[in-house]
Specification:
The structure holds two protein chains of two kinds.
Chain A lengths: L3 E3 L3 E4 L5 E7 L5 E8 L3 E10 L2 E4 L6 E7 L2 E6 L8 E8 L7 E2 L3 E5 L1
Chain B lengths: L3 E3 L2 E5 L4 E7 L4 E9 L5 E8 L4 E4 L2 E6 L4 E6 L8 E9 L6 E3 L3 E6 L1
Parallel strand pairs in B: 2-11
Antiparallel strand pairs in B: 1-3, 3-8, 4-5, 4-9, 6-7, 7-8, 9-10, 9-11
Classes of the chains: A mainly beta, B mainly beta.
Protein backbone atom coordinates (compact mmCIF):
# COMPACT_ATOMS: atom_id res chain seq x y z
CA UNK A 1 0.00 0.00 0.00
CA UNK A 2 1.08 3.53 -0.74
CA UNK A 3 1.96 5.35 2.43
CA UNK A 4 2.24 9.11 2.69
CA UNK A 5 2.52 10.18 6.26
CA UNK A 6 1.96 13.70 7.43
CA UNK A 7 3.10 14.34 10.96
CA UNK A 8 -0.19 15.62 12.36
CA UNK A 9 -3.87 15.68 11.33
CA UNK A 10 -4.69 18.74 13.42
CA UNK A 11 -2.42 21.44 14.75
CA UNK A 12 -3.06 24.68 16.66
CA UNK A 13 -0.26 27.21 16.89
CA UNK A 14 0.10 30.77 18.13
CA UNK A 15 0.87 33.75 15.93
CA UNK A 16 4.63 34.17 15.59
CA UNK A 17 5.51 30.55 16.35
CA UNK A 18 7.78 28.58 14.05
CA UNK A 19 5.87 25.60 12.67
CA UNK A 20 7.23 22.42 11.09
CA UNK A 21 5.02 20.17 8.97
CA UNK A 22 6.61 16.86 8.08
CA UNK A 23 5.83 14.56 5.17
CA UNK A 24 7.33 11.11 4.71
CA UNK A 25 6.85 8.73 1.78
CA UNK A 26 8.04 5.16 1.41
CA UNK A 27 7.90 4.80 -2.38
CA UNK A 28 11.32 6.21 -3.24
CA UNK A 29 9.70 8.93 -5.39
CA UNK A 30 11.70 11.86 -6.64
CA UNK A 31 8.99 14.53 -6.74
CA UNK A 32 7.37 15.85 -3.59
CA UNK A 33 4.94 18.74 -3.14
CA UNK A 34 3.32 20.91 -0.52
CA UNK A 35 -0.09 22.44 -1.25
CA UNK A 36 -2.51 24.42 0.82
CA UNK A 37 -6.23 23.91 0.32
CA UNK A 38 -8.71 26.70 1.02
CA UNK A 39 -12.45 26.73 0.27
CA UNK A 40 -13.17 28.11 -3.18
CA UNK A 41 -9.49 28.31 -4.06
CA UNK A 42 -8.68 24.65 -4.50
CA UNK A 43 -5.12 23.50 -4.08
CA UNK A 44 -2.38 26.07 -4.37
CA UNK A 45 1.19 24.97 -4.73
CA UNK A 46 3.57 26.27 -2.08
CA UNK A 47 6.78 24.43 -3.00
CA UNK A 48 7.83 21.36 -4.87
CA UNK A 49 11.01 19.35 -4.84
CA UNK A 50 12.23 17.19 -7.70
CA UNK A 51 15.18 15.68 -5.86
CA UNK A 52 17.07 15.81 -2.61
CA UNK A 53 18.12 19.37 -1.78
CA UNK A 54 16.29 20.66 -4.88
CA UNK A 55 13.25 22.90 -4.57
CA UNK A 56 11.12 25.19 -6.67
CA UNK A 57 8.69 27.85 -5.47
CA UNK A 58 5.06 27.54 -6.31
CA UNK A 59 2.36 30.19 -6.32
CA UNK A 60 2.52 31.02 -2.61
CA UNK A 61 5.93 31.88 -1.34
CA UNK A 62 5.70 34.40 1.45
CA UNK A 63 6.05 33.00 4.91
CA UNK A 64 7.07 29.49 3.87
CA UNK A 65 10.27 27.56 3.36
CA UNK A 66 11.04 23.90 2.80
CA UNK A 67 13.72 21.34 3.49
CA UNK A 68 14.52 18.12 1.61
CA UNK A 69 17.61 16.57 3.15
CA UNK A 70 16.54 12.98 2.48
CA UNK A 71 14.59 11.60 -0.45
CA UNK A 72 11.74 10.28 1.69
CA UNK A 73 11.14 13.42 3.75
CA UNK A 74 9.90 16.85 2.71
CA UNK A 75 9.36 19.43 5.43
CA UNK A 76 7.34 22.63 5.23
CA UNK A 77 8.37 25.42 7.58
CA UNK A 78 6.34 28.43 8.60
CA UNK A 79 8.98 30.80 9.92
CA UNK A 80 6.55 32.95 11.89
CA UNK A 81 3.00 31.69 11.75
CA UNK A 82 0.26 34.18 10.95
CA UNK A 83 -3.53 33.84 11.06
CA UNK A 84 -3.77 33.94 7.25
CA UNK A 85 -1.81 30.69 7.20
CA UNK A 86 -4.70 28.88 8.83
CA UNK A 87 -5.48 26.24 6.23
CA UNK A 88 -5.39 22.58 5.25
CA UNK A 89 -1.90 21.55 4.14
CA UNK A 90 -1.53 18.61 1.78
CA UNK A 91 1.66 16.78 0.93
CA UNK A 92 1.97 14.77 -2.30
CA UNK A 93 4.59 12.75 -4.14
CA UNK A 94 5.04 11.11 -7.51
CA UNK A 95 7.78 9.30 -9.36
CA UNK A 96 7.99 11.67 -12.32
CA UNK A 97 5.92 14.19 -14.21
CA UNK A 98 3.54 11.87 -16.03
CA UNK A 99 2.57 9.65 -13.15
CA UNK A 100 -0.03 9.70 -10.45
CA UNK A 101 0.54 11.94 -7.46
CA UNK A 102 -0.25 10.34 -4.11
CA UNK A 103 -1.63 12.60 -1.41
CA UNK A 104 -1.45 12.48 2.34
CA UNK A 105 -4.50 12.95 4.54
CA UNK A 106 -3.63 16.56 5.19
CA UNK A 107 -2.80 18.65 8.25
CA UNK A 108 -5.39 21.16 9.34
CA UNK A 109 -3.43 24.03 10.84
CA UNK A 110 -5.10 26.74 12.88
CA UNK A 111 -3.08 29.80 13.85
CA UNK A 112 -4.57 31.76 16.74
CA UNK B 1 0.84 32.16 -15.11
CA UNK B 2 -0.97 28.90 -15.63
CA UNK B 3 -4.57 28.72 -14.49
CA UNK B 4 -7.20 26.00 -14.20
CA UNK B 5 -10.85 26.93 -13.72
CA UNK B 6 -13.91 24.90 -12.87
CA UNK B 7 -17.35 25.59 -11.48
CA UNK B 8 -17.71 25.17 -7.72
CA UNK B 9 -20.96 23.18 -7.42
CA UNK B 10 -22.97 20.60 -9.32
CA UNK B 11 -26.13 18.87 -8.17
CA UNK B 12 -27.58 15.78 -9.88
CA UNK B 13 -30.14 13.07 -9.11
CA UNK B 14 -29.02 9.54 -8.42
CA UNK B 15 -28.91 7.56 -11.67
CA UNK B 16 -28.41 10.62 -13.88
CA UNK B 17 -25.15 11.49 -15.61
CA UNK B 18 -22.87 14.15 -14.15
CA UNK B 19 -20.66 16.34 -16.29
CA UNK B 20 -17.94 18.36 -14.63
CA UNK B 21 -16.15 20.91 -16.79
CA UNK B 22 -12.72 22.48 -16.58
CA UNK B 23 -10.77 25.01 -18.62
CA UNK B 24 -7.04 25.60 -18.51
CA UNK B 25 -4.77 28.21 -19.97
CA UNK B 26 -1.42 26.52 -20.52
CA UNK B 27 -1.19 25.42 -24.13
CA UNK B 28 1.86 23.32 -23.32
CA UNK B 29 -0.11 21.11 -20.91
CA UNK B 30 1.00 17.54 -21.39
CA UNK B 31 -1.05 15.63 -18.84
CA UNK B 32 -4.51 16.39 -17.48
CA UNK B 33 -6.01 14.71 -14.45
CA UNK B 34 -9.19 14.31 -12.50
CA UNK B 35 -8.82 13.76 -8.76
CA UNK B 36 -11.56 12.97 -6.24
CA UNK B 37 -11.58 14.09 -2.63
CA UNK B 38 -14.05 12.57 -0.20
CA UNK B 39 -14.79 14.30 3.12
CA UNK B 40 -11.86 14.19 5.51
CA UNK B 41 -9.62 12.43 3.01
CA UNK B 42 -6.73 13.32 0.75
CA UNK B 43 -6.99 13.42 -3.02
CA UNK B 44 -7.23 10.25 -5.07
CA UNK B 45 -6.49 10.03 -8.77
CA UNK B 46 -9.58 9.05 -10.75
CA UNK B 47 -8.26 9.17 -14.28
CA UNK B 48 -5.88 11.07 -16.52
CA UNK B 49 -5.46 11.84 -20.21
CA UNK B 50 -2.45 12.73 -22.31
CA UNK B 51 -2.71 15.88 -24.37
CA UNK B 52 -2.49 13.95 -27.65
CA UNK B 53 -5.75 12.13 -26.85
CA UNK B 54 -9.26 13.51 -27.15
CA UNK B 55 -11.18 10.89 -25.23
CA UNK B 56 -10.65 8.25 -22.60
CA UNK B 57 -13.23 5.90 -21.13
CA UNK B 58 -12.87 3.94 -17.93
CA UNK B 59 -16.01 2.11 -16.75
CA UNK B 60 -18.48 4.82 -15.69
CA UNK B 61 -16.01 7.63 -16.37
CA UNK B 62 -15.52 9.39 -19.70
CA UNK B 63 -12.95 12.13 -20.13
CA UNK B 64 -13.18 14.46 -23.12
CA UNK B 65 -10.38 16.83 -24.10
CA UNK B 66 -10.77 19.69 -26.54
CA UNK B 67 -7.23 20.91 -26.90
CA UNK B 68 -8.14 23.76 -29.23
CA UNK B 69 -10.51 25.26 -26.65
CA UNK B 70 -8.40 24.06 -23.69
CA UNK B 71 -11.47 22.38 -22.25
CA UNK B 72 -11.57 19.16 -20.25
CA UNK B 73 -14.68 17.39 -19.00
CA UNK B 74 -15.45 14.41 -16.78
CA UNK B 75 -18.69 12.53 -17.31
CA UNK B 76 -19.86 10.11 -14.64
CA UNK B 77 -22.57 7.78 -15.89
CA UNK B 78 -25.27 6.46 -13.53
CA UNK B 79 -24.16 8.75 -10.71
CA UNK B 80 -24.46 7.21 -7.23
CA UNK B 81 -24.61 8.80 -3.79
CA UNK B 82 -21.10 7.44 -3.21
CA UNK B 83 -19.90 9.74 -5.99
CA UNK B 84 -20.62 12.77 -3.81
CA UNK B 85 -17.24 14.43 -3.36
CA UNK B 86 -15.08 17.29 -4.59
CA UNK B 87 -13.59 16.72 -8.04
CA UNK B 88 -10.38 18.50 -8.96
CA UNK B 89 -9.12 19.10 -12.46
CA UNK B 90 -5.32 19.38 -12.72
CA UNK B 91 -2.72 19.84 -15.40
CA UNK B 92 0.99 19.27 -15.64
CA UNK B 93 3.12 20.91 -18.27
CA UNK B 94 6.71 21.61 -19.09
CA UNK B 95 6.14 25.27 -18.21
CA UNK B 96 7.49 25.82 -14.71
CA UNK B 97 9.25 22.49 -14.59
CA UNK B 98 6.39 19.99 -14.56
CA UNK B 99 4.61 21.29 -11.52
CA UNK B 100 0.96 20.29 -11.27
CA UNK B 101 -1.66 23.05 -11.12
CA UNK B 102 -5.10 22.33 -9.66
CA UNK B 103 -8.47 23.94 -10.16
CA UNK B 104 -10.61 25.08 -7.23
CA UNK B 105 -12.60 21.85 -7.23
CA UNK B 106 -16.24 21.10 -8.10
CA UNK B 107 -18.39 19.85 -5.26
CA UNK B 108 -20.77 17.21 -6.60
CA UNK B 109 -24.02 16.69 -4.68
CA UNK B 110 -25.98 13.56 -5.54
CA UNK B 111 -29.62 13.58 -4.50
CA UNK B 112 -31.27 10.26 -3.76
Amino acid sequence: DVKVTQSSRYLVKRTGEKVFLECVQDMDHENMFWYRQDPGLGLRLIYFSYDVKMKEKGDIREGYSVSREKKERFSLILESASTNQTSMYLCAHRRRENTEAFFGQGTRLTVV
Amino acid sequence: GEDVEQSLFLSVREGDSSVINCTYTDSSSTYLYWYKQEPGAGLQLLTYIFSNMDMKQDQRLTVLLNKKDKHLSLRIADTQTGDSAIYFCAETSYTGGFKTIFGAGTRLFVKA
